[in-house]
Design brief:
Elements (H helix, E strand, L loop, with lengths): L3 H8 L3 H6 L5 H13 L3 H17 L5 H10 L18
InterPro entries: Bifun_inhib/LTP/seed_sf (IPR036312), Bifunc_inhib/LTP/seed_store (IPR016140), Plant_nsLTP (IPR000528)
Family: Belongs to the plant LTP family.
Organism: Foeniculum vulgare (Fennel)
């Protein structure tokens, strides 16, 4: 099962990137990679998606364009959008 605290901890190093752009740190990309590893099943993906969405909603300064580019910038094939508006049931 996915624990949102774990997802939050994975994303915390990404906050400066998500709010300011630039290049994500190694710690941030490691976190993105760990979320991908956690989300092994379709249900885990939905749960992780809801955690990511909730985390994104706690930071109103997150730039959606930057957030959506995060997996690409980290070279991680993440099937979970980093967004405040994702419909996680559609994943």
């Amino acid at each position: 099962a996915i624990d949102c605290k774990t997802v939050d901890a994975a994303l915390v190093p990404c906050v400066p990137y998500l709010t300011g752009g630039g290049t994500p740190t190694t710690q941030c990309c490691s976190g993105v990679s760990s979320i991908k590893t956690m989300a092994g099943t379709p249900q885990d993906k939905k749960d992780a998606c809801n955690c990511v969405k909730a985390a994104a909603n706690r930071y109103p300064n997150i730039r959606d364009d930057v957030a959506q580019a995060l997996p690409v910038k980290c070279n991680v094939q993440l099937d979970i959008p980093v967004s405040r508006t994702t419909n996680c049931d559609a994943i």
